[in-house]
Specification:
Length: about 325
């Protein structure tokens, strides 16, 4: 009895973290339901006809003509960033060879983007013999740079559209200032210029940060930026297709923050969808439909790309074994 309880306890303890993304998703969709239902009642309609009217007004062929090239371009840029970082800190690998693994991990990213990055660590470990912690360090480096890339563009957008943005966005420059100070200490620490006796930096998970130079952080920001700038145009034009008017400057301020919300673990990017309804409270139904279509087309289209590359990725991972 004692042995059985000891083995069952860790399993029970591990259920909680797994449920958190689903709880967040359920809370977001319940909130969306109440907001959309209230908007439908104001229009004298029930929920389903109200949303049906919203979807019926969209020019879907035009929307697809925007989303397909955007998603493909994002995939190529995302793979370029991964290729650059792996070649800096782990092993020499061709750009064409990185495409199958990056595409395949999009399937896992449907639920959690970070799980996809973990799968890349396993892939490169099995394919090229790179120690898993070193690859994990590179994935951590990419995530670290993504935070600063989004924050930099969010700060620029907030400053450009200060008067028209919701008050909560006025905190972005202060967050950016604090992040810049932290970054300076971060670089000094991992270069050994401060706290030289600290052993924390020697851990394998910080392999990439020990080797990284400031110009390499900046390079990732530059490589990522075309994807965000393209997204600003695509999202602005797509909003118009859903009946919501917004300027490029407004979307430049909104979008990096929305992408922060999209990084919250959970299916269907529920947090990001909810944020759109907060930004456009007078067009709740349109904003919810827009967020649902934009974010979910993006992740499922990329997952479809992953399925196209899956056979090659499995062959490189497992060789002659059954995957």
């Amino acid at each position: 009895m004692t042995g059985g309880s000891r083995t069952a306890s860790p399993r029970r303890a591990s259920i909680g973290p797994k449920l958190v993304p689903w709880i967040i998703t359920a809370a977001c969709f319940f909130y969306l339901y109440t907001r959309i239902d209230a908007a439908a009642l104001r229009q004298g309609q029930s929920l389903v006809p109200y949303l049906s009217d919203v979807f019926a007004r969209v020019q879907w062929s035009t929307w697809l003509a925007l989303m397909v090239p955007y998603s493909l371009t994002f995939f190529l840029i995302d793979s370029l960033v991964l290729w650059r970082v792996v070649n800096w800190f782990n092993t020499r690998i061709g750009y064409a060879d990185i495409l199958p693994v990056r595409a395949s991990t999009y399937v896992l990213s449907i639920l959690n983007e970070q799980v996809g990055k973990g799968a890349m660590a396993i892939y490169l470990n099995r394919r090229d013999g790179v120690p898993g912690w070193q690859v994990g360090s590179s994935m951590l480096f990419i995530m670290f740079c993504e935070f600063y890339y989004l924050l930099a563009w969010a700060t620029l957008g907030a400053l450009l559209r200060w008067q028209s943005l919701p008050p909560i966005f006025h905190q972005i420059p202060l967050v950016a200032l604090a992040a810049a100070i932290f970054f300076a200490f971060w670089v000094l620490y991992f270069s050994g210029r401060i706290l030289p006796e600290s052993k924390l930096r020697e851990r394998e998970i910080f392999h990439a940060f020990r080797r990284a130079r400031p110009w390499q952080y900046l390079t990732i920001l530059v490589l990522r930026s075309p994807a965000l700038l393209l997204a600003v145009f695509v999202y602005t034009w797509s909003l118009a297709l859903f009946g919501i008017e917004a300027s490029l400057g407004e979307i430049l301020g909104y979008l990096p923050v929305i992408f922060f919300g999209a990084a919250v673990p959970g299916p269907m990017r529920a947090v990001a969808i909810t944020m759109w309804t907060q930004l456009f409270p007078n067009d709740v139904g349109e904003a919810a439909a827009f967020g649902l279509c934009m974010h979910n087309f993006f992740i499922f289209f990329n997952a479809a790309l992953g399925l196209l590359f899956m056979r090659r990725a499995q062959r490189e991972l497992f060789g002659g074994e059954t995957a």
